[in-house]
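Lecture notes, part 5. Sequence design as translation. It can be helpful to think of inverse folding as translation between two languages: the language of shapes and the language of residues. The source text, in structure tokens, appears below.
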């Protein structure tokens, strides 16, 4: 295909991170929560700067910051905060080479934090599954968020809609999102819509803390999605992305990330396959695995 999805350079190589971990290990025991947090903080500060970190991530961050920790009452842990910081560091390490990645950093620096995180989470979906992609840059003649390689190796578009965690569900909210996404994909083009939705929109049950929760999409959302996708032939698929965090004193922190893919019934090849499983697996550095690596090197 004409589009080139080459890496565009490096920002923070693993040898540098190894050196930082080795130096930090002289004063802080590797593998501890403090050591891991300081490494995650270093990565985040590297990409977004000290001022951004102090404003949005620090204990004294602005009360309205999406990333501010919540240690209210007698709580000595904030599982959501711990996971978000770990995930943010992991996203930076893995997506820093993607073409157009600077747009994600720009959105984060413009305080569009939830939207910026959603863009990077979708980048993770593509990269983990080996789907060639790039974030849309100024020179690209489209208003969507991502350009990617479809299963038949042609160019396709991806529009990301992020519903903030405090947003209440309504039928109109989804309808307007699909209508706007169809307009952005444009006549004569093929694309998908990825919708990041709050876990509060889902039906979540968990029989015991040691097991992953069962996350089901409500029938009302299914009905709206199926109705809308039939109306827009240029929208080939809709993918919902959900993140759920929980903490149990005995079992500790759990984080569940799931996707739900809806196929347009009008689809023909190559869109009649499940997109997220249509490619050879990609690669992804786990920040947890890196933490174990740094602990062994100490």
């Amino acid at each position: 295909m004409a589009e080139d999805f080459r890496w565009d350079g490096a920002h923070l190589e693993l040898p540098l991170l190894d050196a930082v971990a080795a130096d930090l290990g002289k004063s802080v025991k590797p593998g501890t929560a403090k050591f891991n947090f300081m490494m995650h903080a270093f990565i985040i500060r590297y990409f977004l700067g000290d001022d951004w970190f102090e404003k949005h991530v620090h204990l004294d961050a602005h009360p309205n910051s999406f990333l501010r920790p919540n240690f209210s009452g007698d709580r000595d842990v904030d599982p959501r905060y711990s996971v978000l910081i770990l995930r943010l560091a992991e996203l930076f390490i893995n997506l820093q080479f993607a073409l157009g990645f600077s747009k994600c950093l720009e959105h984060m620096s413009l305080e569009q934090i939830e939207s910026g995180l959603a863009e990077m989470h979708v980048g993770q979906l593509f990269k983990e599954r080996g789907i060639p992609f790039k974030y849309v840059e100024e020179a690209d003649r489209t208003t969507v968020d991502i350009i990617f390689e479809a299963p038949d190796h042609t160019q396709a578009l991806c529009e990301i809609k992020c519903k903030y965690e405090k947003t209440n569900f309504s039928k109109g909210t989804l309808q307007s999102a699909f209508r706007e996404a169809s307009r952005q994909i444009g006549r004569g083009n093929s694309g998908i819509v990825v919708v990041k939705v709050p876990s509060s929109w889902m039906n979540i049950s968990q029989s015991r803390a040691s097991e992953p929760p069962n996350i089901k999409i409500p029938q009302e959302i299914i009905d709206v999605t199926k109705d809308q996708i039939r109306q827009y032939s240029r929208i080939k698929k809709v993918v919902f992305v959900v993140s759920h965090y929980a903490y149990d004193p005995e079992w500790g922190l759990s984080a569940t990330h799931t996707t739900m893919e809806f196929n347009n019934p009008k689809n023909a090849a190559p869109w009649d396959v499940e997109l997220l499983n249509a490619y050879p697996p990609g690669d992804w550095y786990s920040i947890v695995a890196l933490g174990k690596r740094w602990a062994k090197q100490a």
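The translated text above is only one of many valid answers, since several sequences can fold into similar shapes. The first strand starts at residue 133 and ends at 135.
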